[in-house]
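Handout, section 4.2: multi-component inputs.
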Amino acid sequence: MTWWERLAALLDPAATEPPAAFTLGDRGVQPPEELEETRRRLREVQQTAEALRTRVDRYLAALEQSGGGPGEKGAEAYQGIGDLSPSLAENLERLRQRFRAPDNADLIIREIQVATRPPVRAAVVFLEGMAEKAVINSHILQPLMLLAHLDHHLQGPGDPPADSFPAKGAARGREGGAGRSPRAPGPGAEAGAGDSGGGTDCPLQAILQRLLPGNQAEVKPALDSVIDGLLYGDTAIFVDGCDRAITVETKGFPVRSVSTPQQEMVTRGPLDAFTEAFRVNIGLIRRRIKDPRLVTEILQVGSLSRTYVAILYVDGVVNPKLVREVKRRVSSLKVDYVGSSGVLEQLVEDRPLSLFPQTLSTERPDRAAAYLAEGHVVALADNSPFALVLPATFWSQLQTSEDYYIRWPFGSVLRWLRFGALVTAVLTGGLYIAAANYHHDMIPTELLLFIAARREQVPLPAGLELLFMEVAFELIREAGTRIPSVIGPTIGIVGALIMGQALVEAQLASPVVIIITALSGLASFAIPNYSTAFGLRTLRFAFIILALVLGIYGIAVGLFGVVLHLAGLRSFGVPYLSPLAPRVRHAPDVTQRGPLFDMEFRPRSIRPVDSRRQAPVARPWDPTVPRRLRRRQKGDGSGEPR
Amino acid sequence: MEQGHIGGGQAALLIFTILATKVLLVYPTAMIQNGQGAGWLLVLLNAAWGAAAVWVLAALARRFPGRGLAEVAQEVAGPVLGTAFGLTVAGGLLFLAALVLRLLSESFIIAILPQTPPSVLIGTAVGLAVYAGYLGLEPLARAHQVVIPPVAAAMVVVLLLVLREAQAGWLYPVLGPGLPTLAQASLWHAGAWVEVVLLGIYGHAFRRPGELGRAGLWGVVAAALALAATTATFTAVFGPEGAAREPFPLYHLARMVYLGRFFQRAESLFVLFWISGGLTYTALLLHGAAVTTAQALGVPFYRPLLLPLGLLLFGLALLPGSYTETQAWDALLRQWAALPLFGIPVLLLAVGRLRRRGGLAHVR
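Output:
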C-alpha cells in the first residue's frame, strides 16, 4: 500500500472496519478445543485400560499354565508380560497414535521383510534427530534385510536351531480369522516367564541373538517401555507375530559440541545453541522434552528456497487453535525465498510495521523447550540457528534463561535492572534535552550550574550535540559488529574512548552529553532481545526529537503513544502486554521471578488446554509445607511432583 | 460496532481515571471554596450523585444488556428522539473533552511551557486521542492499566511527602459550614461526576451486564477517596483561605516536596504523570463521543468519525479566549449539562419500563 492508500483507508468505512483479528479469547463456557482435548484424553484412558486388561489376562493365563498362584511362581509369570499385540499392524497403529503421527514427522517407521527363510514382516522404528542413522543402516537394516538368510548356517552353543524361524503360514494364520484376540494370552505367556523371545512361533529371540550386532539390545514387552526407549534415541524392531519388540541402543542426538550461544550467554546453565541444521535443532529440543506428545510438523515455505519449517508443540498442553493459526500463516505464505527465521518472523507476525517484535527469537534450545512446556509453539526454519517462540509478549523480551537458573531473588533483581535499563535507554537523552532546553527549574541548582559550566564552550545547541553523539555511538556500534571479530571490540573501545576524549577536548561536545550517550547506549545492550533493543534504540531518537520540540510534554505524548501502540499489539491472538494488561491471573514470572514452587500454572494468556504446570505442593518432602496441603494433595492422587 | 470487550477491573479503572482527572484541575479548589475546611466531605457527598448515576446506568444495562446508551435511546424513544438523545450525549462529551483539554493545555503553558501556543498542545493531544480511538476500546483500557497505576502511585507519594507540612487544625470544624450547606453545594456540583455516563455508552462492551454496576461503583468510590484525600491534604497544608485561591493544588503540593538539597522539585516527575492523565482523559472522551455518534446515527462503524470529531474537538478547545473564560464555560456546562446527561438515562429507564422495552439484543 502506498502512503496515500493508507491515508485514504482511514476515511473508508469498509477499510476501517475492525478486522476479524485472530484471538485465543472469547471461546465461551466450553470451548471446542477443550472439548476435543477431553475426548482425546478419554480415548487415551480407554486405550490404557485396554492395555492393562490385556496384561491382566495374560498374567492370569501365564499363572494358570505355570500352575502356581501368587508368590514366587506368580512373580516369575509376571516377568515379561506386556501389552503389545502379535499383530504388527496393530502395534504400529498404536505407536502412531501415541506419537501423533502422521502430524508428527519425527516418528520414522521403516517396514521391511526380514530376509529369513521364509521372510518375516517387521518394522524398524526410530525418532528422527535422536538416533544415529549410520548405526541403524549398518547394524540393523543391513543384517535384517541382507544378511539374515546367510545366518541359518551359523549355530552357536545355546542358540536356537537354525530352522527355528517360524513358517510363513503360521504367521499368516495368526493374522487371519484364526488369529487370537489382542487380549488372548500371547506367545509370551505360552512360552512361560523365562522366555523372552515372544513364543515358539516368534523369531524374536533368534533375531536378537544372531542378527543384531548392536552392543545393547533388549526385548521389551510393553508399548510404554518401547516408547521410553525411542525417546532416548533407541531403535525399536517390531516383528509380525511377536507380542514383544526389540530395542537397540542407537542414540545419536546432537550433543554440546554443536556450538555455544553467541547472543544469549549465561553464566549458569547449558551452553549449547541451535545450529543451521533444523533436524539437529529438533533433536536438541527433543532431548529436553522426552514425551511422545511433543509433535514436530514440517511445512515447506518459499517457491524457490523450499525451506523446511518445523512447527513444534506439546499436544495436550498447547491450545490447538494456536497450532492451527501458526500452520495457517506459515503454509499460506506466497514468497519465493525464506532464508532464515528472521525472514519468517516478519512474514508471520501480526504487525510487521511495528518497532517491536511480536515473536521471540532464541538461539537456546533450553529456552525453546521451556516455552514448549508452557504451551507455546516453536517454529524452526532450516538454515537458521534461531527458533521463533509463538506467541510472545513484551515482558518475555526482557527475560533470559538465566533468570530461572539462578535463585529467585537474584532473578527478580536482574529483571528489575533490565526494566531500569529500558527506561534509561529510551528516556535519558530526551529528559536531558527537555530539562536543558525548557525546564531548567526541574534540575537541582548545583547540577544545573555544573551542566551550564561544561556547556559554556560548546558551540552546538544541546539537541544537535546529543543527536550528533548518538549517531556517532551507533556508527561505532555498527562498525564494531561488521568488522572482523578479532579487532571488533578493540575498534569499539578505542573508537569510543578516543572520539569522546577528542570531542571534549575540541569542545564540540560536553562531558555530560558523552556520559548520557554512553549510559543510554550501555543500557540498550542490557535488553536481552536483539530486535527489542534495536527498537528501543530507534525510539530513543524519537524521544530526543519530541523533547526538542515540546519538552517534557513531548516526552509524555511519546510515552503515551508508545504504551497505546503496545496495548494495541497482539501476537498470535495474545495481547502483547498480557498478563498485566489485560490483567490475567499469572504465576510470579512477569516483572519478577518468583520461587519455582509457586509457579503452579502455565501462562493463562496463551490459554493452554492443560493449565496446571505442577502439583499444588511441588515439594511434598518439605516439612515446612502445611500438613493440610500435603494431605489434600495426597488425596487428589497428585502427591508426586510432576 | 466493535468486537472488543472490557473486564470489570478495566472498566473500574477507566471510570476512576476520567473522574479522578479532576484532581489536576480546579475541582479541589472549588470544593474548598464551597465547603471550607470540610471540602473533603463535600467531595464525598458530591460523589454520592455519581454513585446514583451509576445505579441508574446499571439498571439500564440490566434491562438492555449488550447495548450502548444511544442504542437504548433509539429502542425506547424511537429513531428521531433516540437519535437526538444520542447526539446530545455525544455533543456534551465532546464539549466537555474540549474544555478539559483547553484547561489542561493552559495549565501546562502556565506551569512548564510558557512560550508554547495552546494550539500546539491541543493539536498533539487530539492527534493522539484520534490514534487511541482508532485502536479501539480494548487497547485504550489496556493502556490505562499500564499508565494509571504509576500516575496514582506518584500522586500518593506526593501527598505523603507533604504531610509534614499539614496542620490538622485547618480541617476543623469537621462539618465546615454545616451539613445542609454542604448537601446543597454537592447538588450544585453534581455535574462534576457527569463523566460516569461513559459507563452507559460502553454498555455493549461488557460481557455480563452485572459487571457494569460493580465496575462503576468501584470507580466512583476510588475516585471519591482519591479526590477527598487530595482535598483534605491541600486544605491541611494551605488552610481553607489559601487553598481556595490556588488554581493547581496538586502541582503546588508537588512543588513543596523537599528531601534534602538534591531531592526537591518533584513537580518534574509530577508533570509527566499530569500530562499522561490528561491525555488519557481526552482519548477516552473522544472515543466515547465517536461511539455514541455512530450508535445514534445507526452506522455500524465509528472509526471514520474519529478524524472529523477530532477536528471538531480541536476547534471547540480553541473557542474560549483565555483560561478564566474556559473555566467559566466548564462550570456552566457541568452545571446545566448535568441535567440532560443524568436525566437522559433516568428518562430512558422510566420510559423503557412503561413501554415494556428491554431484553436481550439478539432476541429483538
